[in-house]
Specification:
The protein has 13 helices and twelve strands. By secondary structure, it is α/β, with parallel strands linked by helices. Strands 4, 5, 6, 7, 8, 9, 10, 11 and 12 form a nine-stranded mixed beta sheet that branches. It binds guanosine-5'-diphosphate and magnesium ion.
């Protein structure tokens, strides 16, 4: 038997308290009214005190029961040891969550910091007519890679930008005259971008200055003026010019051609005129597989128009891109943003003068045009620019 005393404001509550702890099977041995607390009887509480008896083994059972309830709690299944183990796991998990939360908050902070640091560079990209999506991709790649230490050094950032652009742009090999059969270089592109002028520059460089055996072809059945223009250059340089109108004529011409280099000027058809492009493609197909096709585009072209031009001229299967009129604008961002993958830049033209105003495309030139080095005190010297 065990004996216990319970106190409560009323008899009923005292019994309830006892039953809650010991179960229903109890004996109430005594009951008395008492006062508790207060000073000299003042402010004391009136309580009922009961003395209760219970058979000991039942209490043990109850204890076992209460422990059972405890072990059935999600904390553990068998005993206190596992419960501790569980607590440890819980603790570790909480710590991991805390860590992840800190990372998240820290990551956001880093992102914010980088955004602020990159903002002048972003502005320059915008001023250089780079497209929104180009800038967004650049920003995303930078935010991920940039450490706080790097972000504080403009030189590091400019170099990283240079490398980023270098990674996106591919440069074509210079035109090389064919040995056994002619290398056939075709210039396509919208009207007025400078195809005929560029052909004249290339023909003068290779035919007159480098003394290779060069011939000119024009596939331009619509515009007599264009033929006249190229005809004048041909006459001046004493380079043969052939006018081609059909696929068969082109095939025939190439069969009998023994030049090292053939420069093909194409019609000034509008890029909106798909019929014209399909027709041109049909003529070029007379020599499919042997052509070195360059799309000519002006540096002054807006981004949307550049995308449109690159897309429409895809049917002519060009691999290279010539950017003209770099003397008229200092920005190439719209073209670089619109440039499709696997297209190589081949030449830049910088004025109307034949043959001087043409140069091989280069990453250094692009970087120079971007003028990102204005953002750092000293110049980004060429040796610092990792090209390739
Ligand atoms: N400023 C400048 N004008 C150029 C350049 N290349 C060509 N042009 C001029 O652009 C105009 C159109 O050139 P053209 O060769 O007839 O273009 P096409 O219609 O594509 O054959 C002419 O007035 C050229 O002198 C260049 O690099 N810079
Ligand atoms: Mg022309």
């Amino acid at each position: 038997m065990i004996y216990k005393i319970y106190r409560a404001p009323s008899y009923k509550e005292a019994v309830l308290k006892a039953k809650m702890e010991l179960g229903n099977d109890i004996y109430i041995l005594s009951r008395k009214d008492i006062k508790e607390g207060g000073v000299f009887g003042l402010f004391s509480k009136k309580l009922v005190e009961i003395t209760v008896a219970k058979k000991e083994e039942k209490i043990m059972d109850k204890k076992a029961n209460s422990r059972k309830i405890e072990v059935e709690a999600p904390v553990s299944k068998k005993n206190n040891e596992i419960s501790e183990d569980y607590q440890k796991r819980l603790f570790e998990e909480l710590n991991a969550i805390k860590g992840r939360l800190n990372d998240l908050i820290g990551g956001d902070k880093k992102k914010e910091n980088n955004k602020e640091i990159l903002s002048p560079y972003k502005k320059l990209f915008k001023e250089n007519d780079f497209s929104e999506s180009f800038i967004r991709n650049w920003e995303l790649s930078f935010e991920k890679e940039l450490t706080l230490k790097d972000a504080k050094d403009p030189k590091v950032i400019v170099n990283r930008i240079v490398n980023y652009i270098n990674g996106l742009v591919e440069i074509a090999d210079p035109i090389a005259p064919g040995k056994d059969k002619p290398e056939v270089v075709v210039l396509v592109g919208p009207t007025g971008v400078g195809k005929t002028t560029t052909i004249a520059k290339l023909a003068a460089t290779y035919g007159v200055l480098k003394k290779h055996k060069v011939e000119l072809v024009t596939i331009d059945s619509y515009r007599i003026a264009a033929i006249e223009q190229l005809g004048k250059y041909a006459e001046l340089m004493q380079i043969p010019l052939t006018i081609i109108n059909t696929r068969e004529e082109f095939k025939e011409y190439l069969r009998g051609c023994n030049a090292e280099l053939v420069f093909v000027d194409t019609a000034g058809r509008s890029q909106k005129n798909n019929m014209g492009l399909a027709e041109l493609r049909n003529v070029l197909d007379g020599a499919r597989g042997k052509l070195d096709i360059h799309l000519v585009i002006s540096a002054t072209t807006k981004y949307r128009d550049a995308v449109d031009i690159f897309t429409r001229f895809n049917q002519l299967l060009y691999e290279k891109v010539i950017i003209t009129k770099l003397d008229e604008t200092n920005t190439v961002g719209s073209i670089i943003s619109a440039l499709e993958k696997n297209r190589k830049l081949s030449y830049f033209t910088t004025g109307q003068s034949v043959p001087d105003d043409i140069e091989l495309a280069s990453k250094e030139k692009i970087v120079k045009l971007l003028a990102f080095d204005e953002l750092i005190d000293s110049d980004v010297e060429n040796k610092e620019i990792k090209v390739g």
